[in-house]
Amino acid sequence: MSSASSDIFDAWWGWPPPVLDPAGPYAENVVVLAWALIGMGVVVTAIVVAALYVAIKGPARWKAKLGGEKAVWIGGIALPGVVLTTLLVWGLTLTASLTEPVPENAMRVRVTGYMWWFEVEYLDADGDVIIRDANELHLPVGEPVVVELASEDVIHSFWVPNLSGKEDMIPGRMNELVIQADRAGRYGGVCAEYCGGPHALMGFVTVAHGRADWNAWVAGRRGSPTEVADQDSPGVVPAITPPVAQETAPGGLSGRQVFMDSGCGACHRVAGTEANGLVGPDLTHVGSRLTLGAGILPNNRGTMIGWIGDSQSIKPGNRMPSYDMLSAEELEAIAIWLERQR
After folding, report:
1. What's phi and psi for 83, nearest 5 deg?
2. Ranges in the chain, pLDDT < 50
């Protein structure tokens, strides 16, 4: 497999997410219920088709029985009543475990929906943000995680089919959903509620880590004490750390300088720089993310250049303008600088 096709495969791994392949306890019961409803739907459809055939092509004696009062009472009232009541009771019993209390010390993550991307904030025991990210959710394997769901604009819906049911994200309201992954891997997520133009291109990736990998990921993201403090203070211009700013692209262009001169920092935040915008995704660790554009592109230099230069062709209607006024060299310089933000 070539490198390019491998990149695409990696980006689409889990996309679209399979809905009948549970990888955790909070998805298993949902899938069992889904299979039961699918099976019941097939049986009911078969009965209706058979009855229709008898009504049209069947012998006169069968047609008379089908239209008789007894058939109406049994097939039209008693049977549906018993079947639907049984399904309702069984389904409520089966899914009752989804609302059971989780341990008080369970990890908590706040996910906020925007048109058309997801902000992800990892919280400590006091509810303070310790890591801020976008369009990518990382979890430890085998542990329930409480996801606090909010929205800044319209109604969205958070759904990782392998790991949970779905829950709405409503402006002015905080909903909660518990998810858990019992095996390491990547799991695709989507917005499951139509939220406007690029709704179908609003996705994210969930990555489940073994405990050792999880600890290493957290340590890498939290970085130095200075950076942690910056992460906790969105909207406040943090102290500038110059080493990254001095890196230049071939030709001598400074990607950081082009980024700032183009006004990207008005919408995006990069911890340790003067870029501190809150409108778009936080780009502090964008170089380590698997995808760009909320789960729709593999993250590499080529797609980064394409996204910055012509995002409206890739995801029409998204809120980032196409920077087609920048030269190829300037776009490459920004992409090189951003891919170093890890």
Report:
1. -65, -45
2. 1-2, 224-246
Structure tokens at 325: 């006024």
Say what the pTM is.
Answer: 0.82
Query: In terms of DSSP H, where are the helices of 58-129?
Result: 60-66, 69-71, 79-95
Cα Rg, the chain, nearest whole Å? 25
**With contact defined as beta carbons under 8 Å apart, do 9 and 1 qualify?**
yes
Tell me which residue of 186, 321, 175 sits closest to 262, measured CA to CA: 321
Answer yes or no: are the C-beta atoms of 202 and 195 closer than 8 Å: yes
Chain-centroid distance of CA 118 in Å reads: 7
What is the rounded distance in angstroms from the CA atom of residue 302 to the CA atom of residue 155? Answer: 33
Structure tokens at 271: 């911890």
**pLDDT, tens digit, 9 for 90 and up, residues 84-103:** 999 999 999 988 878 888 88
3-state secondary structure (DSSP) of residue 114: strand
Residues 105, 128: Cα–Cα separation, whole Å: 14
Beta strand ranges found along 212-272 (DSSP E): none
Contact 178, 146 (CB under 8 A): yes
Provide the pLDDT for residue 67.
83
How would you label 303-325 residue by residue, b for 16+ Cβ within 10 Å and e otherwise?
bbbbbbbebeebbeebbbeebee
Q: Would you report the helix, strand and coil content of the chain in percent, each value rounded to 5?
A: 45, 20, 35
228 token code pair: 């942690």
State how far the Cα of 172 lies from the Cα of 153, in Å rounded to an integer.
9
Other CB atoms within 10 Å distance of the CB of residue 232: 15
User: What is the average pLDDT score of the chain?
Assistant: 86
C-alpha 126 chain-centroid distance: 25
Chain position carrying tokens 């058939």: 71
Q: What angle do CA 125, 284, 194 make, to 5 degrees?
A: 80
